[in-house]
Predict the structure of P-type ATPase.
Amino acid sequence: MLKIWIVIIKTKFEETIRDVANRSLRCIAFAHKESVEAKEIQSGIKVEILKDGMTLLGTMGISDPCHPEVKDAVSCLQNAGVKVKMFTDENILLTPNSGAVIESVEFQNYTQEERMKKVDEIRVMARSSPSHKLLMIQCLRQKRHVVAIVGNDSNDSSMMKEADIGLYMGIQGIEVTEDNSDIVLADAETLPLIAVQLMWVSLITDTLACFAFATEKPTKVLMKKPPVSMMDPLLSNIMLRNILPQALYQIALLLTIQITGTSIFDMDSDVTVTFIFTSYVLCQVFNQVNSRKLASKNVFEKINENKHFLVISVVIIVLGNNLPNKHTIVEVIK
């Protein structure tokens, strides 16, 4: 009678696990076991607890959805003619219904001829290990496909080395994986300036700043300075004194806005990007004024006499805070 109840309970749990998996939830089981080892663990001694002999308490389903950007990213690749394949260590029931789905063991048990025939049709490989991923990559390359693989841990190093293009993506760098990758994708903490903003910095802000300095009139102070020797370094001590503090200040300011700006100023990601770029433009204007008189304490000396300098500075501020941004500075302030 006891065995019958055990079978019934086991069947019930299996049905529950399948039901949880069919709803795309991760199933986690809870169990306990009283043992001497458990007491030793509490006292700080590392021991191995045997997995058998444990009492099952229950199961729980946990939702682990994809990032919102994944769907658009996959669609973009598919529209460009890229065939996307997903490797997952999850149960086959948890894999999305996105075409041919196969268990890794089944793919491994195929003959070489069967693998070469079916590898193009496979879209999702469940229960996959590094060796299974490597096997599929080798089959794809044998069929003259250009294979790009995205990895994020040390287990992916072998398949990234085998692929034509290895892309490493992760928050913390893993040296083994990075060494075997061709492209390292920056993590989320990198300053997220869009392409137009980067072009604006290079072509507009820097160019206009050069014109601003070119309009500065020479002064008699220049004739009191000694000639510069050909052996003197390109960057003088005065220049380094101005460059280093300004660089450290800008890095600290922009990283602070990037990391904590969303919570401090209650902004979404798009507004944060605009805020970062606007702050950067203002920093450049500040540095532009600060660089007028490198050896002088009064950087505003006779600045009102150079109308071109003032006009260019205003143009940089106005255009830089409106044209290349998704939001204007007025919207950011609001």
Residues 195-333 form one domain. Residues 237-265 form the longest helix (29 residues).
